[in-house]
Every structure is written in structure tokens, then in C-alpha cells.
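SAMPLE LOG
Freezer: B-3
Tube label: C17
Construct: single chain, 353 aa
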Amino acid sequence: MTEHRTGRGAFAADRSAARASNAVKALWWGATAAAARALTQPSRATPETFEPSSAPAPEGFLRRAWAEAFEKDAADVARGLYPAMDDAPGGPITAWRDVADFLADARQVEARRRRGGGVEARAEAPDGDAYPVYYRQNFHYQSGGWFTAESARRYETQVEALFAGTAGAMRRRALSLLADAWRDRDQRGLALVDLACGAGAFLRDLNRAFPRARPVGVDLSLPYLEEARRRSGAQALIQANAERLPFAAASLDAVTCVYLFHELPPRIRPVVAAEIARVLKPGGLLAFADSVQPADEPRLGRLLEAFPAYFHEPYYGSYCDTDLAALFGSAGLTETARDRAFLTTAVLYEKAP
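STRUCTURE (predicted):
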């Protein structure tokens, strides 16, 4: 019996306790987001090019979808599939410091949005050919792009405020699919890579769910890898481009990939999909999570149209129209399970044995 299974009783949380924790988290990040909106007044800078074609979501739908993300995560924790989230601020001083930094930077982000400063991060990027042109951008109009320690430090605060506290719960749908598939497997010797691990929040979840697998984090940004080391405690971190992974063919049992593909140009997505398939063993798994697509939930159409208009996401529109089954199928990966929470779709793919 694996350590993951024997440890369930120790970390399985009561669902009501998880609900209470999620409510506090949602209140905190919702208030933070409201403060940022009041401070920057983004509604006064509606992009002239934004002409939505979809109807608004039905009344109450977004609220229910938002709450469902927390409920799904709490249910998986309660049945011992993986530990509860451990993403609370380090203490009151740390929490207030992070929020103050986020609010101060929010003014810079809004100013960048209004002037259309989507590629200013190219001045921050180190010289050389390590970073593709498409990577040298201010995705989300964030200060520093992927190239500064300050950007890496505030990233999780930004995404939690943006999604009213659901960022962790949404991406953990991919963890749920992988943990369910591996629940009867011995973790020892399993090779697991978190591709585009970013600031390390999901890598921390993987480390806690699969402690004996010792997941490896891979990202192209050195500052984000350093933040991932601090946040997750992981020691195995590798700087690499997802187009050229530094792993032997058929060497990995699983790859996780969260929120990467909507930031890849259309011509690069098949390259990365093929590279993932190359490094997976026969029968290996890809736990994938990214933005929900309009075909998944038409009632979110207006919101999905607004996202790239307000946040610099140059490849998001093409991602929304991408046939994921065809994309990964052409690389030799087949869908075996699927889930959704609020604005995220998670899919488990398997490489043919």
C-alpha cells in the first residue's frame, strides 16, 4: 500500500471545515480585487475593439460556477484523494504586505493596459536566444513579464485576485484527475514533471499529493523557478523551453501542464504537444488544465471574449477555437477523463501503451 493511501486519514479534511476555509479565502481575495478595481477604475478604459457577440451569462450562473470550484476541491479532500490546499498567507504582516504590493502594482498594470504596452517586457529580458519572441511579452499586462523576481513574487496574488480566490481550486482539477488515476499505484520510482511550473503553487500541491514521486518543476523563467523553489520547497527545478524538453524519450510516467497552452502561438502548440508525448512512457499520463473554451460552456462566452480584450493575451482567441482532442490526438495522446471548474477545463490524456 502506498504512502499516499495510508496518509489519507491524516490529511483528509472535514468538508465543512474546507468550506469555511474557502469562504474566508474567497472573501479575502474578492475584497482585494474590489479594492484594485476601485483604485484603477478599469471600466473607464474599455477597449475600443471589444464588441462582444455572446450574451451575458444568466443571472446567478457565475456565482454558482464559482462556488462549485470550491465544492469539488473540498469533496476530493474529504475523500482523501489529496491534501487540503496550503496556500494561506504566511501571517497578517505578510498578507497585508502582499496586498499592498499588488495594489501599488495594479496602477502600473492599468496604465500599461491603457497605453497598450504589451511588449514592454522585452526590455527586461536577458540578451540571447534563450527566450522566444512570443515569450517576451507582458502577458496580462503584468509588470516585468516573466523576467523579474517582483513579477514572480506577486503572480499568485494577481491570479487569486483576478479569479476571486478560485485559482488554486480550478487548477487542482488536473491534480484530481491524476490522483484518481494513480490512487492504486505505488509512487516510488514514478517520474513526474510539472511543465511550465511558474511560481510553484501547483508544484507544491503535487509535492504534497505525491511525496514519494518527488515531482520536478520545469519553466523557462529563472526568476519564476526561484520563486517556485521558495513556494514549493522543491529542489528539482530545471530551466527549459517546452519545445525542447531535456528528458529522454519514454522516460516520464506523467507530465502536468497548467495554463500554458493558451499563451502559446498556434504554430507552437503542436510542437509542445508532440514533445510531451515524446517524453512520456507508453501508458504515461498528461494531466492538462487550461481555460475553459466556449464549446465547453457557451454561457461563459461573453466572459471569455472579454478576457483577451482586457488582459494582454495575444493567442487566447485562437486557443478558444483549438480542437484539443485533435491537437493531442495527433501527438499520440488519447483523452481518458475530463473535469471542469468555473473557468478551467482539465483533461487527462494517456499515451498509447
